[in-house]
Queue: 3 jobs
Job 1
Amino acid sequence: MWIILSALTALSQSLQDIFSKKNLLKNIDEYLVSWSLAFFAFLFLIPILIINKIPAIGDNFWWIAIIGGVLNLFAFVLYIKAIKSSDLSITVPMMAFTPIFLLLTSPFMVGEFPNLAGISGVVLIAVGSYVLNIKERKNGFLKPFSSLIKEKGPKLMLGVALIWSITSNIDKIGVQNSSPIFWATTNTALIATFLLPIILMRKNKPLKEIFSNSKSLIPLGIFNALVKFFQMNAVNLAMVSYVISIKRTSILLSVILGVLIFKEKNIKERLIGVIIMFIGVLLITLFG
């Protein structure tokens, strides 16, 4: 079941990425986009929470919820700043390091130690997702690393990958102290609440801008809600590093959808990344 939930997380993330591709993030303030992602996700999750009812809350819930909300706030804003400041081809590959960072953070935060096959699978998915994102062969595989020195975007995205390797473990602690749907709803509510004062200080008429871009922002919020819902249920059942590794296959799905929807080319050049990721998924699901 956790594999199915992780795959649904990847699919939802991919749909969110594809929907964002129409220059949305370059036209709207990054704080406003971040707030909308959290707020509209919260509105979508509330009815599901009402149906499932509020669970018993553990002693560690609220302090871990506040820490997770603050860290995710920074991650949301840094993620959008990274995309706006540099090309996707050198920023998105940095996200491949989240599963690698998780191999370091998960043992300390939630006491999860993958076996050798699992570690190998995580590393292969990270390598495959990195290779998959090198869109221009002329730039070379090391272009994102050299860009870390010269460009702002890759630096910010590497910071996002590190933060998410921490918040993914916090998600597991939060789920264990409540329920997947209650944690997802609380998390999005806190992010939106923490961002609201910043929005009000930065914008004269934020509601007008949100309303004028609602056709783009609301679907993004719904996709974000689906990501949260499926991911929280998955981490409740399996190791965080495995779930996030499977989630990273959203990059693979985005490539496939990009070919089908946007008629993108160079799919053959990305085949090696696809194969590496597929082997990694097999190692985790069969032997991890």
Job 2
Amino acid sequence: MTAPGALIGIDWGTTSFRAYRIGFDGQVIEARSAPAGILKVQGGAFEAVLEREIGPWLHDGPDLPVLAAGMITSRQGWVEVPYCPCPAGSAEIARALWRHETGRGRIVHFVPGVAFVAADGVPDVIRGEETQIIGEAGAASGRRLLVLPGTHSKWALVEGGRIVWFATFMTGEVFGVLKEHSILGRMVADEADDAQAFQRGLAYARAEGGGLLKRLFSARTLVLFDQLRPAGVASYLSGLLIGTEVGEALDCLADAPAGREITVIGSSELTAAYLSAIEHAGLRGRRAAADAGAHGLFLIARAAGLVR
């Protein structure tokens, strides 16, 4: 039997469940995933799902600490955990862990999300992404700028291992709504990745005059005037939205890190799209290390004294 390791880390989101057995060196020994996000758990049976998905790990390592992050700590999750305010690094998040005893007597430490209040007084929140940010940049000195693409993209600035600023952009959700429920989506035919259309969308996002609401209608008119193929509409819209996101995020950060290198944490397809958009904006992009979220859980557990 393989040694159980030092920690069981869980990223339990809205649509998916991911778990990691992590060694004393912070490296992932084994990973498991399932389409068992919190919205698919019936009747609040979270403990039953936990046992179903990683029961053997729990059995083989009865004394292993278990850390769970993500939407599992939201109002719709297992236990609602108050947000940890910025600035927040592994030490601050570790102090805010929520200790919960399951019906079987197992202790689960729930990781809080992080909250930030901007200069305009409007709050923003993240749940789950904080572990990825800490795992990628939390142990490094200096300043790092990161983006986590997705339904709700997150941009974060880290200084000295602590998240000091972040902002959410609803890029992925807006893309889905436009494609499925707007007149622009009706233009899509035989959808396929179209690199040229994507680049054209990026370019128009940076054009002078007008903003996104004006530019969106171009996805219709370019097709009407045979300047864009219907099969390229989705790629064009993606470029337009991602390009706008990059511009808006940088506008929020007049004092961004020197060199403007941006680290992208995400799936390979989204990472490639964002790296292209970052390069188009004249900046430098880099891919995050693999298993950033698992490493972040390890750093938080170590800061909490759960891993020696």
Job 3
Amino acid sequence: MKILFLNSTIPNYVTDGLFHGLRSIPGITVVDVPRLDYMYCDASMQALAKTGSKGNTLYKLLQDVPEIKGNRTFWYENINEYDLIIVSDIFHQCDLFHSIYNKLHRSKKSKLCIVDGYDDVAMFPFFNISYNLRIRPWSYLYKTRRVQYFKREYQNAASLFGFSKERFPFYNKIFSRFFKRPGTVYPISMSIPQIHIKYIPFKNKVNDFVAYNVDKDLNDLFDDRRIAELGKWQPAFNDQFEYFSNVEKSKFGITSKRAGWDCLRHYEYAAKGTILCFKNLANKDLLCAPFELDETNCIPYFNKEDLLRKIRSKSIMELESIQEQQYKWIEKYTTKKVALRFLDNLLSN
């Protein structure tokens, strides 16, 4: 199978994890255009510094494949040779999408798909509406809904068209009764490389919480740490080794919805056996990542009192059971397995 992975060289955890996973599957050739420098072992510090995690977890892991280098030259002319074409940043690549859609032979149009890893619950072109209307109103005519569209953040059908619960509660309530999720829209999540999963017995953990807080209601549990402000790079650790070392020693990790529900932090904590304490998890739609988290494999909570009560009420055996189930969960969300499910969805539809 030959895949063309079109990107804007703007790092995104969903698409970067998918790319890593696709490259991990034997028998598949993935041609990234342009080359995703920060994904390869020869990545420069300058390139890694521009990723969301400053080069940690997903990055600088892949070996380049000399055989694909020539495929990047005049790739557009050979577009019909690919079995699958992935547009990984539809906001910045919408004009390219339109051009490719029109160039593809009719039998090949079904091989074109979109992966939307944005925090926004709306699908393109219904997010950043003011920009699209002002700069490129023609983008509303592009046939993005005629191809399979993989979306990370999901709220309900009305929100897909720009009527989110937060910004337009009245219209969301009304339109959600009439709008249906398009049959071409599928869920997708972040993922983590298998090499980061490390099995650590719960009894071997010595710290209560990972020294990183994203919930202001828990500030007094983290006296020596300020809450991590949304949208600001505020490293709590010097490097990945120090970060993972702290996670490995910690029993619990606090997480919640931030810009979106899905976050690489969920997968990093779970990979080291740190039990996720997930604020307001019940408010997340089942079609929104992260998937399959519940009281059997994490600790959902609503406020500080609820969290502490749940932790104190559980025996060591019950916590070990949650950790065990969480390890089973994270094994399903390695980059390779998420990529395999992605391909299964495409091939079956």
